[in-house]
Amino acid sequence: MIGPFGLLTDSPSIAVLATLYIVNLAIVVVTLFTIGNNRRPTTAVAWLLAISLIPYVGLLLFLLFGTNRLPAHRRRKQAEFDKIIRDATDELEDELGLTPVPKNYLPISNLARKLTSIPHLPGNRIQIHPNYNETIAEMAAEIDRAHSYVHVTFYAMGYDDVTQGFFDALERAVKRGVKVRVMYDQVGSFRYPGYAELKRRLDAIGCEWHRLYSIWPWEGGWQRVDLRNHRKLLVVDGLVSWIGSQNLIERDYHRKPNRRHGQQQWQDLMVRVAGPMALGVDAVFRSDWFVETGHLADDGADPTAEDFADNDAEDRAAGEAFSLYDCQLVPSGPGYEHENNLRIFTQLLYQARERVVIASPYFAPDDSMRYAITTAVQRGIEVHLHVSEHGDQFFTQHAQQSYYEELLRAGVRIWLYRSPYVLHSKHITVDGEVTMLGSSNMDMRSFTLNAEIMLIVYGKEFADRISWVEHSYRVHSRELTLDEWMARPRMHFAFDDLCRLTSVVQ
Fold first, then answer.
1. Mean pLDDT of the chain
2. Residue range(s) defining the domain that contains residue 17
């Protein structure tokens, strides 16, 4: 029955409304006492508001996106493999003998070891590869040198004119009797044209391949649908590894030219690591393989110290000059209890004494890292931030821009890499003594939702080499000033701030 103001007055309708109200109130009360468990207060409050203001819809969104934890069976497998890594690295550590980390960075090394079970390892040769297409060709040539096995993981993988040679090299390896295992992130790859052709090509090669973090519940169990494996790595025979920021796809990611920014091209950085740390990279691959498939990838005995020495001797005999570096690997992601990359980043910032240089395509830090950066400047540290003038992701770019005013006022120098290039490299250098590079952006997605891999390199010589890369960024960039930034229309600031609220799920 309808009353004078259009309200439902019949008893059944009132009973239904009362029931819905009581159920919603119960949901709010229960979440009030449970949602704050191991969550940042700001995140917990945001979820409480969503559940209170949009009943049932908010609860559904929370069930889909409210936790960054992997299913229990995946976490159990991760823990099992972590123990395997600890045992293996203990043996390798005893065999190689460790050179001391610079005293200033011993806390960093100890923290990384505590978080990941991986020690710093000496005797690594590192080549820097900043040229996109040439890097893919060099990785294909690396595969052609494989004798035992090849392990491949890329967040975004596409079969196209640029990557065809890489897949041809995989096929040749299989025909030689080399064991080839390939993994790619499902969401990171299927959104690009030619995905079906990619799967057909992998089948034709005859290698073992798997999707990472499948969105289908019957393929690995239910989990938050936007948890992603963002790693990029290649391992050959446990002697050589490649890691960095570059995906295995054409440099324009198969995108049509943009009217404003033209044909966007990605600028990336990969490194080739030959030496004991290649086994660390391989351990990360095998960990993902074990968690995804439930099977250990067994290829016999790992390379020994003598094998690494022989590999070095071959290159020296060929006339190649190189230095050896102490390295440490930092895998991170929802399979780990702690936000490994965030903890290392902030520790580096607080230990800085003179200068910090950061390159990150997606920069949306949490409060701890934001305070570490601004505090560094207040302590008299020179801080440079390299980002893209125009990013490839609309909402992420605007969320990133919401931090610029605070950083500029604090004294951070922001360099905008000019269009049509997207600066996709991810690294930080501190005091010209230690460098950290790999796949992790400096945003909440990389800190909490993505599986990432970063490499720490100790020593001034390698930092000097990276400084030339940073110099090349500045040559292709323009410096953003506070006056220029504050001259923008106020609506631009408002939209940036709105996008900032969604940065944790971008």
1. 85
2. 11-65
